[in-house]
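U., I forgot to send this yesterday:
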Amino acid sequence: MAIAKWKDEYSIGIPEVDKQHMKLFEIVNRIQELLCDEFITDKYDGIVAIITELKEYTIYHFKMEEDYMLKNGYKKFFSHKVMHQDFIEKINAVDYSKIDNEQNKYLNEILYFVCDWLITHILKEDKLLAEM
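Result:
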């Protein structure tokens, strides 16, 4: 079951950005799948791999989005960039020792944070990019 199901309302109308947002939803859903997999008793390596992928893809996505904003003279560029930096800092602050000790609890926290941030950011901030 997908926790972060892509909906048409998340589309901002910029094809490359929408495609990258869909990829972020796929990564979030892999976190959910790992969390729900009762056959994997030690999820540490899987969690680290997904968090690493999330971090790398998010940096790539934010760079593309920020380049788009600069190219098109987006007036809220700096405040938007700060939101991106805050997200990256949060992901960089993941405590791998907590993951090792309380895997499902910590994975749930990460999942909730990423899913909530992604949907809220798309609907409130990224939608403004299409209005430029």
